[in-house]
Amino acid sequence: MHKFYEKIVNNPKKIMITFAVIFLICLALKPFVLVNYDMNDYLPEDSPSTVSLEVMEKEFDGGIPNARVMIKNVTIPKALEYKEKIEKIQGVTEVIWLDDAIDISIPLETMDSGTIENYYKDSTALFTVTINENSRIEAVNSIRDLIGDDNAMTGSAVSTAMATESTVAKISKIASIAVLFVLIVLIFTTSSWLEPVIVLIGLGVAIIINAGSNLVFGEISFVTNAAGNILQLAVSLDYSIFLIHRFMECRKETSDAKEAMVMALIKSTSSILASGLTTVIGFLALVLMQFRIGPDLGLALAKGITISLISVFVFMPPLILSTYKWLEKTEHKPFLPSFESFGRFVTNIMVPMACIFAIVIIPSYLASNSNNFYYGASRIFDENTKLGADTLEVENIYGKRDTYVLLIPKGSTATEKELSSELKEIPQVSGVISYVDSAGAEIPSAYLEGDLLSKLESENYRRMVISVESGFEGEETVSLIKEIEKIVQQYYPDTYYLAGEGVSTYDLMNIITSDMVKVNMIAIGSVFIVLLLSMKSISIPVILVLGIETAVWINLAIPYFKDSVIFYIAYLIISSIQLGATVDYAILFTERYKEYRVTMYKKQAIISTVSAVTISILTSGSVLTAVGFLLGYISSHGLLSQLGFFLGKGTLTSMAIVFFVLPGLLYIFDGIIGRTTKNSNFLKS
Known about the structure:
Blueprint: H1 2-10, H2 12-29, E1 34-36, H3 48-59, E2 67-71, H4 76-87, E3 92-96, H5 98-101, H6 113-116, E4 120-121, E5 124-131, H7 136-147, E6 152-154, H8 156-189, H9 195-213, E7 219-221, H10 222-235, H11 237-251, H12 257-284, H13 293-329, H14 340-368, E8 372-374, H15 386-398, E9 402-409, H16 413-424, E10 429-433, H17 435-439, H18 450-456, E11 461-468, H19 475-491, E12 497-499, H20 501-535, H21 539-561, E13 565-567, H22 568-597, H23 602-634, H24 638-668, H25 670-676
Parallel strand pairs: 1-7, 8-13
Antiparallel strand pairs: 2-5, 2-6, 3-5, 4-5, 9-11, 9-12, 10-11
């Protein structure tokens, strides 16, 4: 490594120019990285609902209904006018209303009132709309302009459009505030006025290179777009600070700046790499998720931290060497006091805290696994948003409703009629639009209107549109989907396709719940192995992983005790992110403790360790906490907001474990650590 680092410090211009070129290229590429806001697009390609959608797109022009538009105070003729106008909006592929279910030329009094009230009730019309996924924003905005704010619209297409528009603006706001907060934190925690600027330049270069290079993925998820850059900022912040501080320490040992930088790089490599690798591995565990938002986020974050590490070891040395004279000239007295008294306080409470920790491990684990969850996108926007208010208004008049689309092979109309009749017997099924329901089993397809026939029949399949009185997720929805599938399976064994918002959410639930154990075990096991190899100890990895994992469990147990419902995706993602992002604090603390134990007794080693690492942990931890809470408070997207709050609370929990529990564990198990750690050389008491 010594020769490699010598090449780095001896070729500053080449390195600076190379990074400048890469930075400018990635800055230019960044606007071309597409962002996908539709959660259903991240279902595995072989999931039943994804396969069903692909078949439907090949067989029929329209997709599955993904929006409901409710217009108040309209007559049936006026509602038909609105339907025609909505159909003409670019991006709208299909509109289903009362006239598709019954012949409205016949007096409504003679018709089934239940069927009518699916579409028209209390002078209010409810249209089921299918919007092309490539035109969501334009189509949703055009529909809103047509119906006005007094009327309502809801559905996954509306949710995705709103998420796209609202999140884009708020990400910039969050990033701006985060950078300002980082600057303020660095001013208070560093010893030079110039150091915060140097750190932010290094971080900025790494973040832009990562953001622009995301183009290799084609597109990224809204989670990655919203959280990726600010997580990279918060997690990799301490790498640059650690290198600068090591360099300033080495400057006291030699007057040659280049030699001091090589010394600093050699001394800091193991600690920075250990922290970086555990973080990367924690993020890479997400790649094992079948739900593809996990791999999307995991790869982008792992790439980002890797780029940050490369930047610290390759770009930062020339940058620091070109500015070190100014760093020294702009040194100032520390704004923060010595934390030795804090270290003494910690030693007074560390053993009782370790005992409390032992008591809460099992309850926190059990509670964290007993939460109630949302699996889909139906609850992403709450009642305080326009979409949330619209959804509530539609449900107040028409109840919770969804529309499923069923494809069955063309064949016997008598069999199709039997299937339709049996589906209608299900209490939650409020209506079925199909070939046999529109024409009757005896009427040849030649007598049907062309538009109606094209909606219900293709070359290979017939299409049934099933209206159900059910939400997009929940136990009732799961039971309903299973019952429909059971009935259809009897008539068309393994030859049918079923799709809809509720069906996609059902698939999503099955897929992401199966990911939980696998992702967590791989993350924990991988971090354990890295710690085992880097620290050359059997006992230390057990203590550190147990400590941070318990912090994760406590964080995820809070919603259980508050009786809150949480998004399963946020729950799953934060498990890996909190472990990967905050285990660094435990590593830093333990490494310094091992260093002090060579010359100090264990109690004094704890005091000195707390005094030495508090500023570093507070710097990184406070930024990660602030970034989390900023995302939580500012984002109107429920999933992103919840992920942010989990990140903020989780970081605080991890820091509390590291400051108040880990010292006690190191103190209590000091003898075991000494015997199970290679070359520990602890001072014997």
